[in-house]
Amino acid sequence: MEYLVVVLGLVGLATLIGFVWKSQQGRVRRTSSSIELPDGVSLGDRATLLQFSTEVCAPCRATHTILDSLARDTADVTHVDVDLTHRPELAARFGILQTPTTLILDRDGVIRARIGGAARRDAILAELDRIELDRIGAAA
Hints:
Blueprint: H1 2-24, E1 28-34, E2 47-53, H2 58-73, E3 77-83, H3 88-94, E4 101-106, E5 110-116, H4 121-139
Parallel strand pairs: 2-3
Antiparallel strand pairs: 1-5, 2-4, 4-5
């Protein structure tokens, strides 16, 4: 009977942890910090979608498709996909704990938002609009 209680408790705890983890996936966390860009990365005139991926990451491919499409459809937005498989030092440098991770940078290279997990198109568009509004407000 004791073992059954312990097993049920562990299953409940694992379920709770799973729900908390799932709720954090794809969520935009706003931030404001400058970074030193990886070699070969150039900034977009409005914003840069900096995606960190690995070769064996299925959600990375879906995120790449979304971000690449947004960059093509949105003026002055650049998408850069950095593969951490062959550059693991960048994971430590940028605090990447999961892939995909997307950093949304403004035109000056300041990180304005961070998304862990698969990115949603509507959330990215909202952040790009917010960055633009902040820039316009600062210029006024």
